[in-house]
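User: Design a sequence. Structure:
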């Protein structure tokens, strides 16, 4: 497969008009040389996020969840959001992302990532939630683990199972 690399030149011209308005002109030019992509280019363009092994996560004891936390239901994603998702509006740049790896249809794994937490040391938390069939139409949360990305410390932007300093 050949990838065309477009060279983009944008020239912006602004000039004031009467009552504070402006005119913006953009010029776009393209010269598409063709190159053969390297494996590194493909990996950078579409990195497949890894779930990581359970050993990469700090175990979370699900028996400590409140008694009304329902660990069973027909949708692993909904169970994950109900138990670990943001329950109240948050301030600032909070983001929550969820994805389900159902490559093993008998044991789906949900990854719930929360970034921009209102915490001076924890920048984000990633939950790995493993499910198994409870009945033919229901799933049960059987294992949970956490990773953290910290604002401070030597690991920088890397996810780690250790608590943030």
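Assistant: Done.
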């Amino acid at each position: 497969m050949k990838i065309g690399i477009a060279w983009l030149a944008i020239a912006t011209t602004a000039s004031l008009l009467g009552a504070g308005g402006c005119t913006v002109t953009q010029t776009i030019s393209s010269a598409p040389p063709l190159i053969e992509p390297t494996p590194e280019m493909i990996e950078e363009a579409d990195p497949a996020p890894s779930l990581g092994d359970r050993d990469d996560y700090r175990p979370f004891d699900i028996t400590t969840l409140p008694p009304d936390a329902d660990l069973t239901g027909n949708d692993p994603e909904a169970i994950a959001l109900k138990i670990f998702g943001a329950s109240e509006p948050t301030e600032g740049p909070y983001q929550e992302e969820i994805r389900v790896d159902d490559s093993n249809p008998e044991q789906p794994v949900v990854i719930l990532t929360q970034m921009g937490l209102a915490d001076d040391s924890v920048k984000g938390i990633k939950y790995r939630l493993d499910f198994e069939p409870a009945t033919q139409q229901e799933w049960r949360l059987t294992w949970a683990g956490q990773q953290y990305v910290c604002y401070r410390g030597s690991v920088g932007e890397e996810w780690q199972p250790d608590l943030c300093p």
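The CA atoms of residues 130 and 143 lie 5 Å apart. The chain has two helices and ten strands.
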